[in-house]
Design goal:
heterodimer; A: about 140 residues; Beta-Lactamase; two-stranded antiparallel ribbon; 5 helices; globular; B: about 900 residues; Immunoglobulin-like; 5-stranded antiparallel β-sheet; extended; Clathrin/coatomer_adapt-like_N (chain B); AP-1 complex subunit gamma (chain B); golgi apparatus (chain B); cytoplasmic vesicle (chain B)
């Protein structure tokens, strides 16, 4: 199960934080700070997995952005790594060539996309097309 | 109206925040916005509510407090339109979590939305429930979610399936309601519904055995077929990831098969073929394929035994292990750990590769590899494995070294084939990474060394050599210092030399040099330096030729600002200078430390005797008195900052100071003995004799034949009573009775005490009744003739024990009286013990008037209060 998802830039600014487990605000800030510290300086040749407290962080870097998933120790690391990539592809498709600013100004849409992709800490949809279509329908509702 | 179309203020606010050049500027913008939002909230502004909340969410992401917006979420959720609800739910998930009471208020709104005619609104409600639903909400809304599992739109069905996972995790009792609905999701065609359905089944299996049994019987074949269809599926653009159709769904399916096949032969049998097919046919040149293979191996490892499949799986892991991609090697190491339980032989074949991984530059890989190596070591391969690991220690990262040394220490301790090998390996580790070695590890080494009597000489000589090369490794120094203190003579005279050893010439002063250098080094902490001090004391006796030099070193620390060092220095100096006679027996070799107790202690078990005693302080033999509640963990207990609490009994003090085994008789020291006799190794470690006489044959008794050893108090009494001429009470005398006592030993020989050297002021019997006898012994400080020190000693002549014993005294105005605390408040019957109390009398009319004193003694006998009074007139003149 995914415990939380973080999207941070290299400076450690959080662009998206989604928690599927209850945490105090102060604890969230601590977690965000620690995860950033863990991933930001790792050699690109290193594994995309870092042990974090009693869990594992699966992270992937896209330009200046770090996508980090905190998952259970028994979860399939490679699968989650692949799902980060799928999420990025969806964002890329939705914003057509996504950049950090898109995510800043449209943060609420990013959350909406995420809610169509992952729910309750589990994968909800694996088809890029299905999610993009769904987003289109939701936008029509606005 | 749409709050997010261009020109609205959310964008403007984000721009303003981004345009801030300093943190202060940003705070100012945020403050202004928050003020405006608060104002809008109190005005109950409808039109901009969702825009305000959106802004608030952004502010929240920046880390500012936004709790005042929580109620706004609820209002938005309760409003009719989709855009408002959308922002409301988003805010709810961002600003609140399941623990907030406010969440209770939203349950009803969610319930209504779950029944809404607009399926997008139903979706929003499901999403909120799935992400932050509490147990109460789960209970209240479970029927709605159950119903939605059959909703016509698959988008709702998949959301409902994941929502069900949250519900059954929060309220496991509800699991059985979902079993049938979950099973029917497995026959869907829509991948989103399938993957969520499979996930729901996986979680149901974890929670309910009933569910597990149901899926095993009813669904195994269907799942196998589904898996086969997927694996053989032609190119499906919608779900294709690098040539593989929906690897996510395949992985979920494998995981569910894994749960179903575990411990069930029939189910395992049904899935053997498909597992074999996936394991052999899946492309392994891309991450997605490897993710499937990895999951497949995991499934094979846990389903019922099938030799062929296992071989296949281990081979896949072998391939993974030699992959150039670090991620793949990482998961291989991870999985090999599980494979070890299944087929350790097969894993052992990859030993060399795994050892290579320990040296990887990536800390994640190293960590996995070390854990795995630790499990791989056994009696037959411990030597080469340890050799490799120790060699690597040298090159390892500083931050990794702690982990690695801990593992190596644990390995050599667990599997060492012989003691000499263990000592050698530990020496290497200490020399290489002594500063990273944990306390337990070097404590164990000392325990092992004391137990290997034939290796004492070898150990001390090897340590001596090692410390010459790596003197900066603190734990190495500690062990060396300890061994030199104990076996220094063997270092010098090469006693017990083994054939493999090279000859070593060490003079006595070389040995002292090592200790002195470490002692004076500023890089070592108090524990090490305190150990040095003790080693020096021991060496002063082992090497008579160096005794003076040792004393000179010790003397330098009499003024140390570190209390512990200062006190020990004063004590040890006193022992060396004044008590030649007892010193050799005081500093004799430590008794052998009990390995079993030591390893028991490591496991955290404090001997019951210690843990049960309450209130009374346990006196450690090295003189630090600690509350017994604190487990005695420190080897020396010198590192603790505790000031040795003045103990009331003279007997205890001597015991404290020297750790000499005085057979307990006095009530107080007796009870302490009882607590200490829990064969506490650490207590034993530094004490010269063990506290409990029975536990060790090598116990030293400070008992020259003519001294009555039955009572430590008596012993001291006798030693100190005729003291007047020889007593040189040091300046600290008043505050430190212990020094007094020690100095009370005439430096030449205790025998002289009882015979020669008659005191200048004879003792008097100050008071005597049918049951009590009170004796006063006098002494004076030459520089202060007005002051008389009196040692009062009470003995009980009756046949009953006297308790609650209190002595009080009063004097005329020209006298000043100071009473020290008594040594106890219980007097054993038949003169078999005594209470000591010190008095200090200052006579302002010294030379004109004699001393005089009224006394009152209160005590209980057979629970009855007794009061005795009297006057002491028979003080010697000119006091």
């Amino acid at each position: 199960m995914i415990r939380f998802i973080l999207l941070q830039n290299r400076q450690g600014k959080t662009r998206l934080a989604k928690y599927y487990i209850p945490l105090e605000e102060s604890e969230k800030h601590k977690v965000e700070y620690e995860v950033h510290r863990l991933v930001v300086n790792r050699d690109p040749k290193f594994t995309n997995f870092v042990e974090f407290r009693t869990h594992k962080v699966i992270y992937r870097r896209y330009a200046g952005l770090f996508f980090s998933l905190c998952v259970d120790i028994t979860d399939n690391e490679l699968a989650y790594l692949e799902s980060i990539h799928l999420f990025v592809e969806i964002l890329d498709h939705f914003f057509s060539n996504v950049c950090e600013l898109d995510l800043v100004f449209n943060f609420h849409k990013v959350y909406l996309i995420l809610d169509e992709f992952i729910l309750a800490g589990e994968l909800q949809e694996t088809s890029k097309r299905a999610i993009i279509e769904r987003m289109g329908e939701l936008e029509k509702q606005e | 109206m749409n709050p997010f179309s261009s020109g609205t203020r959310l964008r403007d606010m984000i721009r303003a925040i981004r345009a801030s050049k300093t943190a202060a500027e940003e705070r100012a913008v945020v403050r202004k916005e928050c003020a405006a939002i608060r104002a809008a909230i109190s005005d109950n502004d409808h039109d901009y509510r969702h825009r305000n909340l959106a802004k608030l969410m952004f502010i929240h992401m920046l880390g500012y407090p936004t709790h005042f917006g929580q109620m706004e979420c609820l209002k938005l959720i309760a409003s009719p339109g989709f855009p408002e609800k959308r922002i409301g739910y988003l805010g709810l998930m961002l600003l609140l979590d399941e623990r907030q009471e406010v969440l209770m208020l939203v349950t009803n709104s969610i319930k209504q939305d779950l029944n809404h005619t607009n399926q997008y609104i139903v979706g929003l409600a499901l999403c909120a429930l799935g992400n932050i639903g509490s147990a109460e909400m789960a209970r209240d809304l479970a029927p709605e979610v159950e119903r939605l599992l059959k909703f016509r739109d698959p988008n709702i069905r998949k959301k409902a399936a994941l929502c069900s996972i949250r519900i059954i995790k929060k309220v496991p009792d509800l699991a059985e309601n979902f079993i049938h609905a979950a099973a029917s999701l497995l026959s869907e065609k829509h991948h989103g519904v399938l993957i969520t359905g499979v996930q729901l089944c996986i979680d149901l299996c974890k929670i309910s055995t009933e569910a597990l049994e149901h899926f095993r019987k009813k669904c195994t074949d269907g799942l196998v077929k589904l898996m086969r269809d997927l694996a053989n599926s032609p190119y499906a653009p919608e779900y294709d990831i690098s040539g593989i159709t929906d690897p996510f769904l395949q992985i979920r399916l494998l995981r569910l098969l894994h749960s179903l096949g575990k411990d069930d032969a029939d189910a395992s049998d049904a899935m053997n073929d498909i597992l074999a097919q996936v394991a052999t046919k899946t492309e392994s040149n891309k991450n997605a394929g490897n993710a499937i293979l990895y999951e497949c191996v995991a499934a094979i490892m846990s389903v019922e035994d099938n030799g062929g499949l296992r071989v296949l799986a281990i081979n896949i892991l072998g391939r993974f292990l030699s992959n150039r991609d670090n991620n793949i090697r990482y998961v291989a190491l991870n999985m090999l750990m599980k494979a070890l339980a299944v087929d350790s032989q097969a894993v052992q074949r990859h030993r060399t590769t795994i050892l290579e991984c320990v040296k990887d530059s990536d800390p994640s890989i190293r960590k996995r590899a070390v854990e795995l190596v630790y499990l791989l070591v056994n009696e037959s391969n411990v030597k080469p494995m340890t050799k490799e690991l120790i060699e690597y220690l040298e090159a390892s990262d500083p931050e990794f070294r702690g982990d690695l040394t801990a593992k190596i220490c644990s390995i050599v301790e667990k599997f060492s084939p012989e003691k000499i090998w263990y000592i050698d390996q530990m020496l290497k580790v200490l020399s290489e990474a002594g500063n990273d070695v944990k306390d337990e590890a070097w404590h164990s080494l000392i325990v092992v060394i004391t137990n290997a009597s034939n290796l004492h000489g070898y150990a001390v000589r090897s340590l001596y050599r090692a410390v010459q090369a790596a003197g900066e490794q603190e734990t190495l120094v500690r062990v060396t210092i300890w061994c030199i203190g104990e076996y220094g003579d063997m270092l010098v005279n090469n006693a017990g030399r083994l054939d493999i050893e090279e000859p070593l010439t060490v003079t006595e002063s070389d040995a002292v040099n090592v200790v002195e250098t470490s002692f004076k080094s500023h890089s070592f902490d108090l524990t090490t330096r305190a150990m040095c001090l003790i080693a020096l004391l021991k060496l002063s006796s082992r090497f008579p030729s160096c005794s003076q030099r040792v004393n000179d070193i010790i003397v330098q620390y009499k003024g140390s600002f570190v209390l512990e060092l200062q006190q020990r220095a004063i004590e040890f100096n006193s022992i060396i200078a004044r008590h030649q006679y007892i010193r050799p027996s005081l500093v004799e070799r430590m008794p052998v430390l009990d390995e079993a107790t030591h390893s028991g202690r490591k496991a955290g078990s404090v001997p019951a005797a210690v843990s049960t005693s309450q209130g009374v302080s346990v006196n450690l033999p090295n003189g630090v008195s600690k509350p017994s509640a604190a487990p005695l963990v420190d080897l020396l207990d010198l590192s603790s900052d505790d000031v040795p609490a003045p103990s009331s009994s003279g007997g205890d003090f001597l015991q404290d100071l020297l750790g000499v085994d005085l057979v307990p008789v006095s009530s107080q020291s007796g009870s302490n003995q009882a607590q200490m006799s829990g064969t506490n190794v650490l207590l034993d470690l530094l004490s010269i004799g063990t506290p409990s006489a029975s536990s060790s044959p090598s116990t030293i008794q400070v008992s020259p034949s003519n001294i009555d050893t039955k009572s430590p108090v008596d012993l001291l009494d006798r030693l100190s009573s005729p003291s007047a001429p020889s007593v040189q009470v040091s300046t600290t005398a008043g505050s430190s009775p212990m020094l007094d006592l020690l100095n009370g030993f005439p430096s030449s020989s205790p025998i002289a005490v009882t015979e020669g050297n008659g005191p200048a002021y004879p003792s008097i019997v100050a008071f005597e009744s049918s049951s009590l006898k009170l004796t006063f012994n006098f002494s004076k400080q030459p520089e202060n003739p007005q002051t008389t020190l009196i040692e009062a000693s009470f003995t009980n002549k009756s046949g009953e024990v006297l308790t609650n014993f209190i002595f009080q005294a009063a004097v005329p105005k020209f006298l000043q009286l100071h009473l020290d605390p008594a040594s106890g408040n219980m007097l054993p019957a038949n003169s078999s013990g005594s209470i000591m109390q010190k008095l200090k009398l200052t006579n302002s009319q010294h030379g004109k008037k004699s001393l005089v004193m009224r006394i009152r003694i209160a005590y209980k006998v057979n629970n009855k209060d007794v009061l005795e009074e009297g006057q002491v007139n028979n003080f010697p003149r000119d006091l």
